[in-house]
Each structure stands twice: as structure tokens, then as C-alpha cells.
Design a protein that fits this description.
The chain has about 300 residues and is mainly alpha-helical. Helix content is about 70%, strand content about 0%.
């Protein structure tokens, strides 16, 4: 029991665990957004719908083709990435050189279409997705019970985030990608196929969203509006971390998940707004975000 507050230690750590799980999804989703915006200057408002598609892709593989969770971790992001690359080549590429608002409006409309189609076919109720057998059960830590799947979700999300940061910031491929973003004409002169690189980058970004959807499927029910519930918060995470900042998205995603979890313990009424309060405070002090750079 925490003195003066009347809160049990078990309740506190339980909410911290919930906060870490939410933070893992915030980090993965905002990471995909940061990759797409930072590398391609596209404000991808369809990200939440693509996250939902990843969850439904895994559900479809299991219930129709009897392909389980582990192959779905690869197949669902790959399938959604291919869909995203088709969208980029047929729609988004036509908006190059225009104001960001056009890309935002296009992806927002695309999100509404995708969500509407899934809702029309599956309805509003959620579809269950079982926890894989290997990750069932949990560990009693004394002060709390830690489900194996929750621990896996946090650890795997963190590993994917750090690998993505390393690939973009510390490898030759990442250097080429940044060069193609900052000076495409010069990069083409070195024999790099810039349009193909842009398409692959967009596919990778939406693939991260789909991967988050597969991870979320056993925790939350798979439903058409599951992405709509998250996308506004995820955009707030990206803004706080700094638009286009890879490390900013990772750190801010996990940190805000923890802050949200603590708020549910100490002041539950503010749990749904604390992220936006933090965003307002950060923008007052540092308009470019915590890890962002001035234009």
C-alpha cells in the first residue's frame, strides 16, 4: 500500500504494465509514421486503418487458411506493405511537390474507405484472436502477475524499434535513404533508383503498422475501428517526439504509455487527455518536439 494515497503496490504495477503495453503500440505505430514523414514528407493518416488491416490479415490467415500467429508476424506486415506500395505508386506519387495537406486529405479519405469496407463486411463487434500456445500463462513476480504474451509484446516491440533506428541511422542503406530524401537529383546521379526506394520505404512504414496490429490481435479484439481509436494519440506522440525523429518516436511512445498508466492510478479522469496536455506543454517550450530539429 502506498502511504496517503490508498493505492496497492499490485494495482500500481498492473497499471504500469498496461502503460508499457500501450507504449509499445504507440512506439511501433509512431515509428512507422516517423519513417514515412521523415523520409518521404507524407502525413500518413491511413496509418490506423493499416494497423487494423494487419490485425485482420492475421485473423484471416488463422480462420481461413489455418496459418497461426508466428507465420502471421511475417505474412501480415508483408501483405499490408504490398498494399501500401500499390497505394504509394498509384496515388501518393502524384502528390509529390504539393503541400502536405493534400497527402493528409488523401490518406484520411483512404482510411475512411478502408474502415467503412471492413465495418460493412465484419460489423462493429470484435473478432477474437487466441494467444499462441507458446506464450500462454505467465510468471508470478511476487508484487504482480506478468502474462507471458504481454512481456513478449513489450520486448519484441522494443527490439523492432531499436533495429529500425539502427538501420536508418547507422547503416549505408539508411544513409542512401536520407540522401534520396534530401537531394533526390544528386542521389539519382549515383545510380540509385529513388522512386523505387521511396516506394519500399513507404511499404516498410506501413508494414510496421501492420506488425503492431498482429501483436495487438491477441490482446484486443480485432475490429474495424481499432485503428481509429489510436491514430490521434499516435500523431500526438509523433508531434511530441519531433516529426520525422526515429528515436523521438520510440522514447516518447514508451514514455507516454507509462505516463498514461500512472495517470489512470492517481487521477483516472485525466487518463484520456494527459497525452494532449503533455503535447501542449512540449510545443510551448520546444515547437519542433523533444527530438525534432528546426526546419
Amino acid at each position: 500500500m502506498i502511504p496517503l494515497l490508498g493505492i496497492t503496490t499490485q494495482a500500481l504495477f498492473a497499471q504500469l504494465l498496461v502503460g508499457l503495453i500501450n507504449g509499445a503500440f504507440y512506439a511501433l505505430l509512431s515509428l512507422g509514421l516517423a519513417v514515412i514523414f521523415g523520409m518521404l514528407n507524407i502525413v500518413n493518416f491511413a496509418h490506423g486503418a493499416l494497423y487494423m488491416m494487419g490485425a485482420f490479415f492475421a485473423w484471416f490467415l488463422l480462420n481461413t487458411l489455418h496459418i497461426g500467429y508466428w507465420p502471421a508476424l511475417l505474412l501480415a506486415p508483408l501483405g499490408v506493405a504490398i498494399f501500401g506500395m500499390i497505394v504509394e505508386r498509384t496515388m501518393l506519387t502524384r502528390l509529390q511537390g504539393l503541400d502536405h495537406i493534400y497527402g493528409l486529405l488523401l490518406t484520411f479519405g483512404l482510411a475512411l474507405i478502408i474502415q467503412g469496407l471492413f465495418q460493412n463486411y465484419f460489423g462493429s463487434s470484435g473478432q477474437p484472436y487466441p494467444v499462441p500456445d507458446l506464450l500462454k500463462g505467465g510468471a508470478n513476480l511476487g508484487f504482480m502477475y506478468l502474462p507471458n504474451y504481454r512481456a513478449w509484446t513489450i520486448a519484441f516491440s522494443l527490439a523492432v524499434c531499436l533495429l529500425t533506428w539502427f538501420a536508418i541511422e547507422k547503416t549505408r542503406l539508411g544513409a542512401v535513404l536520407r540522401a534520396a530524401t534530401e537531394n533526390p537529383q544528386l542521389t539519382r546521379a549515383f545510380g540509385v533508383n529513388v522512386p523505387r526506394l521511396i516506394t519500399l520505404t513507404y511499404g516498410f512504414g506501413v508494414g510496421l503498422a501492420a506488425l503492431a496490429g498482429v501483436l495487438a490481435a491477441p490482446i484486443y479484439q480485432v475490429r474495424p475501428l481499432m485503428g481509429a481509436d489510436l491514430i490521434v494519440v499516435v500523431f500526438a506522440v509523433v508531434v511530441i517526439g519531433g516529426m520525422g525523429s526515429i528515436m523521438g518516436s520510440i522514447v516518447t511512445g514508451f514514455a507516454l504509455g507509462l505516463i498514461e498508466g500512472l495517470t489512470k492510478v492517481f487521477y483516472p479522469q485525466a487518463a484520456n487527455t494527459v497525452v494532449f496536455v503533455v503535447m501542449a506543454l512540449v510545443l510551448l517550450v520546444k515547437p519542433a518536439g523533444l527530438f525534432g530539429r528546426k526546419a
